[in-house]
Specification:
The complex is a heterodimer of chains A (about 270) and B (about 260). Chain A has about 270 residues and is an all-alpha fold. Helices cover about 85% and strands about 0% of the residues of chain A.
Chain lengths: ~270, ~260
């Protein structure tokens, strides 16, 4: 008995979280038993067990996999290009006053513009398919990466730069030894934001400019009143976002070994 | 004999954007002999630290000439190293990696620099702390790391910018004593900036009083106390006389500002 109590104490937050999810799902499952929905509403209503069954069927038929690969390819390429462009650009803008002045108006204006206004243009330019999606993912993800990297570089401790300079370091070494490690926490925050925006880019890109992908699957299922399929798609996006957020957190913690405990959870 | 450091009429004016220019140094002239321990004392903002940065090669004076062993200083060089006031340790590096920094930037092979760094970590009294991160160390230990890091490249000149100012009084006394022992063993030329008259008198061969801004070398006082010096020496009448003389010179600068 005491063993069970102490087990509960230890895992209280975890158990409460899981328990509440299970409770809500059960409640949801019971709604049709408790009240009779009018016919019009019943068409758009589903239960967890039906979603699970549909999910399983789509998985067996290979539909989910097919859409999943398309979406992941767009997500990874867009985010990859955003990292490849955003990081170096952020660093250079942070270190060079001239480049900062040159590019600041563009960065500020483009970042302030709602990113989705570009989608029709991208569809015209790159057609219905992966590249218009990659571009919309890129446009969403690049700014948080660039701006956070820039902020990290700008916030570098001048004393530390002087320390490294005093040992005769050149600009490249200053970058490698001080500027980059110092910016890392900022870059991770940027990455976290960028992932969220990249996922949003995939979904919206597939809603409007695609004939494949999870977003497309959701949109076309919705227009055919297949509510189970919509929920199956939503569940995949939820799971994906959760996994990605947790991995970034893990990355953050493994990189933050040198930090005092108090600063770790800022 | 050619002095190790020769500073002639060093002037430096900071010109911050949207603010009035500040003349930090004006025609500062001083010499430091090889192996000598010289302290600079002066009121806050008199340009002592600025002068150290000129010596280090991080700041270029607007006027005057500064030479090291007869050669003009144009930038940082491995014959000089600085111990910084707030330690200036890289927080994401372990003690070992911090101490190795100077050798790493010079491109010294990893195994060689590790061995050399461990030697200095031991000398600085940090044995057993090589894999600790700075935030796990006390202030005194952090500055031991700072000292070990400065000594790792075996510089001829050690520049110290109020290195013990952030430490508590007892740690400070201990660090002063250890610095003297290290200095005695390694025969470095030391230029030491401090606010503490007592510290300057205790450590130095000569104390140079810097005037209020713009900084000039106002007075030079030879400290003729025998070495090795110990803590008890600070209680002697002779030591108090020296302190009084430095204070008298410094006081005029404090009053005018």
């Amino acid at each position: 008995m005491t063993g069970l109590t102490s087990f509960y104490r230890e895992k209280e937050a975890y158990l409460l979280g899981i328990g509440f999810i299970v409770f809500l799902l059960a409640l949801w499952q019971c709604v049709p038993l408790l009240i009779t929905l009018p016919r019009g509403y019943a068409l758009f209503f589903t239960t967890p067990s039906r979603i699970a069954a549909t999910f399983y069927r789509l998985l067996v038929e290979g539909q989910i996999q097919e859409h999943f690969y398309v979406s992941v390819a767009a997500f990874l390429s867009g985010l990859g290009i955003a990292i490849a462009v955003g990081l170096p650009f952020g660093i250079v803008m942070g270190r060079s006053r001239t480049l900062d002045a040159l590019s600041d108006p563009y960065v500020t204006a483009l970042n302030a513009t709602p990113r989705l206004v570009w989608l029709p243009l991208f569809i015209l330019w790159f057609g219905i398919g992966i590249w218009s999606k990659v571009m919309i993912v890129f446009v969403g993800a690049v700014f948080p990466l660039l701006i956070n990297t820039y902020a990290g570089v700008k916030n570098v401790d001048r004393v530390l730069v002087n320390v490294v300079r005093s040992f005769g370091a050149n600009e490249w070494q200053v970058m490698k030894v001080v500027v980059l490690p110092n910016s890392l926490p900022y870059i991770i925050v940027g990455l976290r934001l960028a992932i969220g925006r990249a996922i949003l880019g995939v979904v919206v890109g597939e809603f409007f400019g695609s004939s494949k992908g999870l977003g497309f699957m959701i949109a076309s299922a919705a227009s055919n009143y297949k509510v189970d399929v919509v929920f199956a798609g939503v569940a995949i996006f939820m799971g994906l976002s959760l996994i990605l957020t947790l991995s970034v957190k893990k990355l953050e913690n493994s990189l933050a070994r040198w930090r005092p405990e108090a600063a770790k959870n800022f | 004999m050619v002095p190790c450091i020769q500073a002639r009429d060093i002037s430096l004016t900071f010109k911050p954007k949207n603010r009035d220019p500040v003349t930090a140094l004006k025609e500062l002239t001083l010499d430091v002999a090889k192996g000598e321990f010289v302290s600079l004392v002066g009121p806050s903002g008199c340009g002592k630290s600025t002068f150290l940065n000129v010596l280090l090669g991080l700041l270029k004076p607007d006027g005057g000439e500064i030479r090291l062993n007869g050669k003009q200083i144009t930038g940082p060089g491995q014959e000089r190293a600085m111990v910084f006031q707030e330690f200036g340790l890289l927080p994401w590096r372990t003690v070992l990696a911090n101490v190795e920094l100077g050798l790493e930037l010079k491109g010294v092979q990893a195994s060689v620099r590790r061995e050399r760094a461990m030697e200095l970590i031991k000398m600085a009294g940090l044995a057993g702390f090589a894999s600790h991160y700075p935030h796990e160390l006390s202030g005194g230990m952090k500055q031991r790391v700072g000292l070990a890091r400065a000594l790792v490249t075996d510089p001829e000149v050690l520049l110290m910018d109020e290195p013990f100012a952030a430490l508590d009084a007892q740690t400070r006394d201990l660090m002063q004593l250890e610095l003297l022992q290290i200095w005695d063993r390694t025969k470095k030329t030391v230029v030491f900036v401090t606010h503490s008259i007592e510290e300057a008198a205790y450590l130095s061969d000569r104390v140079i009083v810097i005037s209020a801004r713009p900084g000039r070398a106002k007075d030079v006082m030879k400290i003729a106390l025998p070495r090795p010096r110990d803590y008890e020496m600070r209680l002697s009448a002779e030591f108090n006389d020296i302190k009084a003389r430095i204070w008298a010179s410094l006081k005029e600068e404090l009053v005018t500002k």
